[in-house]
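Take a look at the protein record below and tell me what you see:
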Amino acid sequence: MRDVMGLWLLALLLAAPVLGSGAEANASITPPAPEPAGGARALLQSGVSCAPQIPACTARRCTTRIVANKETYVCLRCKPGYVPVLGADRRSIVQCVCPRGLWESPVTNSCVECGRGFTCAGGDRAATRPSDDRGSRRACNPKDTVGLTTVSTRATALSECVALAGYALPRATGMAAVECPASTYTPALNRLRSCLPCQSGLREDPAFTASGTPRGSRTDVCKVPPGKFWELNVVRDCPKGLYREGFANTTDAAAIRCLSCPEGWTTSGTAATSVLACNRLLPGFKVTSLEAGGQPGLAQEDSILGSPTEACPLGFYFDGAPGTFGCQRCPFGTVTRERGTESANDCLVPPGYYVQAPPGEAPRLAKCPTNVTAAADGPPSGFYRTGWVPPTPAVMDADGTKACTPCGVGILSKWADPDEQTDVAVLRATAVNGTGEAAAAAAAAVASASAQDPGYGWVASSSASCYIKAGWGITFDPADFSKLRAVIPCPANTYGVAGDTFGLYLMPCKSCTKNLKSAPGSSSAADCKNPAGFGYTSEGANQCPDGFWAAAASMDPCEPCPEGRYTDYFPGDGQYQSSIDSCKVPKGYGVFNGLADDPWAPEAPSASMGVRQCPDGFSSPGDQELGGNTSNPVCTRCAAGSATSGPGAESCNVCMAGWGGPPGACAVCPRNTYQPGAEWGDGSTCRPCPRTVWNHNVGDAVTSYGITFHDGSPTPYMCVPRYSQTAKPAGDRLALPDSMFRAVPGATDPGACAAACPRDACCVAEFDAEFGSGCRHAVLPAASPASVVASVSAGADAPRLYYKLPPSDLIAAASIGNGSALAGRVTAKSAAAPGNATAPPLSRVEAKTWASGVYAVCDLSAYADEAAGGWIGTSPDPYMVEAGRDAIEWDVPGLCAGESECQRSCAASSSCWGFLYVPGKGYALRTGEVAIAVRTFFVSPDPETPLPAPPTTLPDPSGDAAPDPSGDAAPAPAGDTAPTPAGDPQPAPSGDPAAGNGSADAGAPAAGPVVQDPALDGSLASPSP
């Protein structure tokens, strides 16, 4: 048993290299299981040759083995390329055969590829004997036949056989291939059971059939036959007059076109296969060798066929009748539109022509006439005719007026359209665009024809030949609205065409744009011009408004007159607005030129200069004449003293402020009067200065007349009360040293005390009611000048006292609607007419105090030491007063470092009564002291006014009724009336202990505050003496 196992191991080792390679040939064989002890013999022998039994076994790889209880040769490894066949034990190789697709070649005794045209099913997989099929092959084609093959060289079955090009598969396997008949084909290696036919119309070329070439390509077999052509995958017959010879591939260029017969010839039918089929002469042609209209003899016909031909010339035709080879002439000299015409119906009358048929003469072609007078009294008219038409009676006429179409009454015509006859058009085109000898010959022919016919080459063949002249129009004929007629010429204020205008359509005379004018026969909108006084705009001309002008035919918009001028305006008539000289000067206006040395009196005043309203003091009568041009008046300055009632005056009708009297005889108003001018008064009357009523708790009311320090005062605000009561904020007295005073016996009340002052000096009248000191005066000489409005006389260097004076009115208390001249001046210009003495009352509260800007200037030379020591007045600064009664500051910068600065500062302070000047010291503001029982007046010098008698009931120098400078009676004290600057009576103001410059009795009702006039705040303005 041990020996048997050893033999099996040896067999496995020897078989290992074979079993590890190939697919079927290298399949593993599992060694048999050891037989049980005492079993049959398993292996007879090993390493023997078994070629006769297993021919494809590798040499010396054969042995025997018990298989299925039978001793059997087995192969340990098949030759390369073979596959093993296993025995019943599924382990032992009992035969080696070829795989599928291979066969055992008797030449090489090995498995090789089957080859094309054959199939190899492989060896018998159940072979056990050497005689069994170990690998054979079978041909696709039966014996002595062709047409079948295989795609692969390892085909395994007859079903893999395919047909060669030009063959189809047989009906059954094993039968011979079917060869394709003519005009059919099959591609190579196909599986078709029948051959593919050529597309309808395509055929096989007999030459291809004779060549014996397999019918394997559609392009080789299916071709376009003669007489046919290939178009969009369809075979079509060559049309009549075309032919095609021979077969052609559908891909050839020759297959898609037929050839034309020689020019002038055609075929008798379609699908002609040769040029010999072109045996019919085409209509419109003739044989070149024959004259037009000529006919050959019958014996000549055969020689004529195929001869060169040419188209029938213009004016001839050929209808293609059999046996006819010439062309016939058109009737009446009519022409054909082109060469080679085929029928007498092609003989036509060209556009612009008609058949002229005078009685007794042969008809002939003639051009339509131009500018024929159809009616004895009508204008000439033109004619035209359109289109190619047959020579019917409709186009036959003796003179063309009926055969041709009239343009319209008065509408002219010209031979302006190109002659459409082909020979004429070609000749002219050659002459113009040709080159060389042909162009020269054509030009000579045109010149010759033009010499005989000036209109050669041109006719009236359309309405475009109809025209009208410049300044004409075309409108509907009122006798027949289907027709047109000319308007000759266009009427005034319209315009027609700009020049000779061709065309037959409505061209009405166009109206000039709004208000524009034109002459008859105008030919352009530019001929429409604006009339005088009408300005041109995009919508036409519009009459210029007042103050504008426009020159006739200028086509400019209305020009504004220079500033301030006007024009005479009459609706619809602009003749008075025709130029800049129509711009007139209104009354009260004058020519003004700001660049001139004297703008109000320029040299050579002209209408191009603007005008302005004459200012106050100038007048102008303006342009007086209605119509006509301007005289360019200027504003003339009024004579000395004369003035105007306001700007824009026609004449100097009032006196200037500060002057009085009738116009033309004005004189300077005297002192203590004023004339405010026409704006605040009548412009002629010098009015007395207003009176001032002073109220105080000491004594009765005191009325002071007003004074001025100069002649010619133009305003009541230069009027100051001669008796100026010290304002409460500035103290009850001026705080002068006692050494300056002297007692005034007999003056038992404040008014009498003030009235006792001298006329030509500054006087401080102080009345002490409590201590019984009564009246005392401090008298100072008046400085020169006696008042200051800007500065004292140059070089004056004496010590001076400046006392702040209030204006004559608005001193006591404020009132509502007091209607004073000041209130009107401060708030608004008076609405009163010149000469109206009453200004409108105003609901306005005025300030309690108000400085007039006028200071009385007194000479302090006698009291220079007291002034320098600070004993005249006290300092308005409370801190300085605490330092001492005589405390004083000189030339305080920004407050009182000069006369003007001191004036402004004192005017702005209600506690300041004035200021001092001491040489070597400078200027200093001063105020007074409080003394309850003291009432103080500053009495200004007034040498002009005579002193009245002593007062009785009023403390006024004039007595009971102290006259004012005008001689009028003075009003009663508080409660009565006092004149205002306008001269109207107003209630006298009541007192107020706290009110400005005046005070009232203790029991008097208090008044409202008074607003200081901003125009005079700190101002020193006043007329010069």
Notes: The CA atoms of residues 432 and 652 lie 90 Å apart.
